[in-house]
Amino acid sequence: MGWFLLKRVGLMLLTAFCLTFIVFALTNLQPNLEKMAKTLVNTRMSDEEVARWLTRYGYEQPVLVRYGEWLGVMPGWTGSDENGKPIGRCLNPDIAPEDAPRFCGVLQGNLGYSTVFKAPVKAIIAERLALTGWLMLWVMIVMVPTALIIGVLAGMREGSRLDRGLSIFSIATTATPEYVSGVVFISVLASSAVGLQWFKGSAASAMEHMTFENFTLPVLTMALYGMGYIARMTRASMAEVMTAQFIRTAHLKGLSFGTVVVRHALRNALIAPFTVIMLQFPWLLTGVVIVESLFGYKGFGWTLVRAADNNDIELLLSCSLVAVVIVLLTQLISDIGYVYLNPRMRVA
Amino acid sequence: MTKLMLTGRHLHPMAEPAAESFKRGRIGRREFLATMAALGVTTAGALALGGIAARPARAAEPKKGGVLRVAMNVKAFRDPRTFDGVEMSNIARQCNEYLVRWKRDFSFEPWLLEAWEMSDDAKTLTMHIRKGITWSNGDTFNAEDVIHNLNRWCDASVDANSVASRMGALVDSGTKKAVPGAIEKVDDFTVKLNLPKPDISLIPGMADYPAVIMHRSYDGETDPMKAFAITTGACELVSWQPQVSAEVKRKDKPWWKGEFWLDGVKWTDYSADLTSMIAAFESGDIDTDHETAADSLKQTEALGLTNSEIATGSTIVARFNVGNKPYDDVKVRQAALHAVDNKVVLELGLNGKGKVADNHHVGPMHAEFADIGPQQHDPAKAKALLKDAGQETHVYELISLDDDWQKATADAIAGQMRDAGLKVDRKIIPAATFWNDWNKYPFSCTEWLGRPLGIQVVALAYKSGASWNETAYSDPKFDALLDKALAQPDPDKRRETMKEIETMLRESGIIIQPYWRSVYRTYRKGVMGCDQHQALEQHLDQAWIESES
């Protein structure tokens, strides 16, 4: 088990290393840097001004050197601004330039500074990830039980009218992407166009105080999309279990249908959905990109869009780090959980 | 009886003749009011003399209290002289102020200045600083602050300092600083600008959004909380989170100008997405917005919101860059101008929400506008011109920004050119990359915001070698005309020169300027005084909340 964990952590580090290097290389292509300089200083800057700015702020060094700086294995660049004041990667206004550390990268616990949000990346990620955490929590609370119930109900009598009805529902929800269902929900349930106006079409106020009114639609939009998928998986697994020998035995023992489903079938049928549910976390992380932008809820997904829009190098890198950790961590949990749920499996 | 003059003197002898020419339609309303103000006639007096019905008095007295919630892109703060979006200034302007304010009625109101005086030759500008204004740290606002800001504005060596180009004659093109000795402190409350050559655009330049007055100790600090630690305005900054939100609240201390009705203002960034903005209005999350796109007016109206409209000098130009073949040939450019009917472009590109323009970038909103008639629309001539130039097979490629109305306008222009038998391709570039080469594209559409004087924008955009000259147009004769116009403070005299400038600009064929835009702002019922401004400025000292949503 220990070896298994170690291997997984090693894999995680390797993936993070590769991914961040790719992101770093892409965000540091010359046109991207020029674009960034213009967004930061002035959109209508001349080419000479851009070149001068990039040199002054250390963007003209080789990509490997700069990646090393970000990692914290190379000393941070130093220089001076137009007024001759010392500037540098590791400098900040609160400490004297002489006292500033030479290295300041991820290894030193410094994720850098966001050029878009004008704040340390660490603080932004923490704040935005917390907001997305709330969204994901509610999505899970709504999605998982509903999906399991639908899946079990559909799978216990394969081919029945109930099964067909629920299957149509779950296929329809999974086939409708969030950007479609979200807009439909806003116009039907939140706008005066239809006149229902039960909910708010903007979740911006949910960042300060979550209410049923302002948080329902984003949660519903995300939950519905994932729900169908989990329900289909549960149904398949349930249907398979229901044809197993031990279920027939249970029937023949004279147990009622309800008891057979709850006592014997359910526990065995939930092993496969468990993995699927864990895999929903990485998916949720991408799903929030659309839903958060649509509903004006400024969480992780929204941050990612803004960072990518503005070529915010260090923020994008940290976003990829977060993504790698979440994906691999949920996979790890899913693997370990699978072992505990299924006694036939052993971790080598 | 109406009091005609501001002071006790009898009516200025020039007032009645001016009123006469206004009634006969020789000068416009805006210009008439400006003339009257210059002569020291009261507004009531001007209305009486000009025979203009006074606007109905405000139905309700302003009410104090409430936080105004505004939907606006919250851009990151930077040194104000390098602001490149009026949105930044709309937060800043509640805390710090301007020397002069460009009001909604297109007149200039002395703000931190009490008065100014331009000499007859337009070479000396004397600025009288308003007395009795104190910075929030207790310092008196005086000449020292004004000179500090003037010097900062004139520093053209700073990347992206756009005020330097607005300070025109005050900047030494060699040292890229203020001309030595040009800024003269007369006493604590008087500053004199001695210009090496006449320049009439200085005062309008000081009203422009990057020219916000900072404390004399300000030195380019980019943390907004520190930059606005010392202020003169009615509000103090609470927070400024780029892309997310910003907030100001009214200071406890009284404001020199009088009453600021709102308790505070909160701006929230809903990005450029229309759906989320409409949803925010419907949710009651916002009271007003920064700007409403013309094509969403129907939606906001259907929601029972009020749309406030103002015609502006804002426009779009489809311009040729003469540095690119075959656009160095005036015939190829003129062919495009003759192929396009600007009326149709206005209809298709903007749903008719504007005013037709005549391809010379000066319009009736400018005092010195000389009407040289509409652009001739003649598709047959367009084809003939192209044939003359030997470029019949040339395919124009019109580039535009990926933005609803700009895209539609470019499409309409391209469509008109195709109808005339010209070959046109369209290319759309997303905003993220469009500005990388905005002044180098061979043929593309650029948005231009309005400026108070007609000569200002022409000098900014079409003077040889000017940093914003995206056409690469260069003609010493044209430059000489610009210099001449810049030395003529009197709009009537300047009009003669403008006539030549406009004609020359149109004959050069470097721009298709189809229309002048109207801009809109939307607000809910119960919110007062936040009507749209021609330069999208938010003068929120005028706003108040009558009733909660």
Describe the structure in your own words.
The complex is a heterodimer of chains A (348) and B (549). In chain A, 68% of the residues lie in helices and 3% in strands. By secondary structure, chain A is mainly alpha-helical. In chain A, helix 1 (2-27) runs antiparallel to helix 13, helix 6 (161-175) crosses helix 8 (212-242) and helix 11 crosses helix 12 (300-309). Chain B has 18 helices and 20 strands. Among the domains of chain B are: 80-206, Dipeptide-binding Protein, Domain 1 (Dipeptide-binding Protein, domain 1, Alpha-Beta Complex), CATH 3.90.76.10; 311-517, Dipeptide-binding Protein, domain 3 (Roll), CATH 3.10.105. Chain B is of the alpha+beta class and 549 residues long. Chain B is globular, with a radius of gyration of 24 Å. A five-stranded mixed sheet of chain B has the order 8-9-10-1-11, sandwiched between helices. In chain B, strands 12, 13, 16, 17 and 18 form a five-stranded antiparallel sheet that branches. Chain B has a four-stranded antiparallel sheet with strand order 4-5-7-6, covered by helices on one side. Helices cover 30% and strands 19% of the residues of chain B. Chain B: Keywords: Membrane, Signal, Transmembrane, Transmembrane helix.
What Rg of chain B, in angstroms, do the CA atoms define?
A: 24 Å
Task: Tell me the strand order in the biggest sheet of chain B.
Answer: 8-9-10-1-11
Q: Helix count of chain B?
A: 18
Q: Mind summarizing the main beta sheet of chain A?
A: 2 strands, antiparallel
What is the share of helical residues of chain B?
Answer: 25-40%
Family (chain B): Belongs to the bacterial solute-binding protein 5 family.
Keywords (chain B): Membrane, Signal, Transmembrane, Transmembrane helix
Subcellular location (chain B): Periplasm
Domain Solute-binding protein family (chain B): 108-452
